[in-house]
């Protein structure tokens, strides 16, 4: 997802699916939480049908720090290529092959650091779903194509600097966004990591350990002394000490029965 509208689009599509009671897509953590009676595979098909990819829990996701570093490299590359184009255009430096120089540098910006915008835009158009990348590709692409046609006709009034500067500034904004999102997302992920990843469930008279996501409503769970509660529930039998630090911040276990 490249912007908040992407999250809203996915959330709306999932929410309109049959059997879904509620859907929440968090842009900061890149996670979708769905409540209802619908298979996970069906949710994956809906998301992929919009042109996005689904990252499974067992596949390590790219951290925001890595994304920020990648965006910074793309911005630097774009800035280095765009500055000469900007100087030639703004200061009207006309020398031999000046127009050709602008064309070569801007083409490098479009098809190197800026190619991601056009790929995402093409994917969105293919799935009848326009977003921020479509707007960026339209603005930069229109300026670039108009300038190329004008250059081939031997005319003046080129707008290569507009195409390259649009991409450069957006990449800078993406870098700042990734940095800010990384800090916010890291705090949310640390809080979510406090939740246990597995639970001991009583099924058919036997106690088995399964992932928390596989626990069904109404099942009985065994909690040992000092352990955290993996899911919401009511104590039906026994007495023990419970770690409530995730909710209250209190490090000492509380006695519950």
Descriptive report:
There is one protein chain. The mean pLDDT is 88. The strands form three sheets. The chain has a three-stranded antiparallel sheet with strand order 4-3-5, with no helix packed on it. A two-stranded antiparallel sheet has the order 1-2. It has a two-stranded antiparallel ribbon with strand order 6-7. Helix 3 (64-90) runs antiparallel to helix 4. It starts with a helix and ends with a strand. It is elongated and about 85 Å long. With 257 residues, the protein is α+β, with helices and mostly antiparallel strands. 52% of the residues lie in helices and 13% in strands.
What would you say about this model in short?
Helices cover 52% and strands 13% of the residues. With 257 residues, it is α+β, with helices and mostly antiparallel strands.
């Amino acid at each position: 997802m490249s912007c908040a509208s992407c999250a809203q689009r996915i959330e709306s599509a999932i929410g309109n699916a049959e059997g879904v009671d509620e859907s929440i897509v968090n842009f900061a953590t890149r996670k979708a939480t769905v409540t209802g009676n619908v298979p996970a595979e069906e949710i994956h098909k809906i998301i992929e049908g919009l042109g996005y990819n689904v990252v499974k829990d067992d596949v390590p996701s790219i951290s925001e720090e890595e994304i920020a570093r990648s965006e910074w490299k793309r911005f630097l590359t774009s800035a280095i290529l765009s500055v000469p184009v900007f100087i030639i255009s703004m200061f009207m430096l006309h020398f031999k092959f000046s127009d050709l120089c602008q064309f070569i540098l801007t083409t490098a910006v479009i098809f190197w650091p800026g190619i991601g915008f056009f790929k995402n835009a093409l994917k969105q158009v293919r799935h009848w779903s326009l977003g921020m990348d479509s707007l960026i590709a339209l603005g930069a692409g229109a300026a670039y194509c108009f300038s190329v046609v004008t250059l081939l006709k031997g005319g003046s009034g080129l707008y290569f600097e507009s195409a390259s500067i649009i991409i450069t500034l957006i990449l800078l904004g993406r870098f700042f966004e990734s940095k800010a999102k990384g800090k916010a997302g890291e705090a949310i992920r640390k809080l979510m990591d406090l939740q246990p990843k597995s639970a001991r469930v009583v099924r058919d008279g036997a106690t088995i350990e399964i992932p928390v996501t596989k626990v069904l409503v109404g099942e009985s769970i065994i909690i040992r002394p000092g352990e955290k509660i993996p899911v919401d529930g009511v104590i039906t039998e026994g007495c023990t000490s419970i770690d409530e630090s995730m909710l209250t911040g209190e490090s000492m276990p509380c006695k519950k029965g």
